[in-house]
Amino acid sequence: GIHYRSQASFTDQEGKQKRPDFIVNLPDDKQLIIDSKVSLTAYERYHSAQPDSGERAAHLRNHLQSIRLHCRDLSRKNYTDLYQINSPDYLILFVPIEPAFSLALRHDRSLFLDALDLKVVLVTSSTLLATLRTVSYLWKQEKQKQHVIEIAKQGGMLYDKFVNFVGDLKEIGKRLDQTNRSYEAAMHKLTNGAQKGQTLI
Question: Are 21 and 36 contacting, i.e. CB atoms less than 8 angstroms apart?
Fold first, then answer.
């Protein structure tokens, strides 16, 4: 509810419900969308099959096709066009098992770039953690920026208070000068006249 939301529901312009897995909040009211629904059933079957069997090759093709299909489906969801989400142009597709991702890239070298063309970034545990650390760093920078702005604001307010305080002291000085002049005038009338008869005494 603060740094991220899970399974939040949104409505697109056609009234269809969209439910991204995770929305990570970024500074400046932006969001990063992470999808983690990629199917690894074919990958599991690939490892369960006999090493040199045609069945294993078929499961490998299915594994590659599954990732590509999910990239296309994710791209078609147009999360970046939802008016409730201010998302960057790219969506993140999380592949939870790193060897499954490595196997796919080894046998289909264009997979990563083709996904990028669909505005989908494929990540695994290590690259997702690096991405989230970058997000954390962005928040740290944003907080420092906010602190600097707050310090400048408080410093400005403090300066204004000092200026007003000095103004008040000057006004007190003027009043004291007026009081002193009135005192001198009164004493002159009472006792300090130059000639006899000019004072009350």
Answer: yes
Q: Distance (Å, rounded) from C-alpha 122 to C-alpha 100?
A: 12
Residue 90 half-sphere exposure, CB side, CA atoms within 13 Å?
15
b/e burial code for range 50-75 (CB count within 10 A of at least 16 → b): eeeeeebeebbebbbebbbebbeebb
Q: What average pLDDT does the structure give for the chain?
A: 85
Residue where the block lists tokens 């408080």: 154
Residues 77, 70: Cα–Cα separation, whole Å: 11
CA 81 to chain centre: 19
State the Cα–Cα distance between residues 144 and 85, nearest whole angstrom: 25
3-state secondary structure of 186: helix
pLDDT in tens, 90-140: 888 999 889 999 999 999 989 999 998 998 999 998 899 998 999 899 899
Tokens of 64: 């590659």
Helix (H) or strand (E) segment spanning residue 108: none
Tell me, rounded to whole angstroms, the distance of Cα 23 from its chain centroid: 12
Q: Give the phi and the psi of residue 22 in degrees, each rounded to 5.
A: -140, 140
Q: Are 7 and 23 in contact (CB under 8 A)?
A: no
Q: How many CB atoms lie within 10 A of CB 34?
A: 20
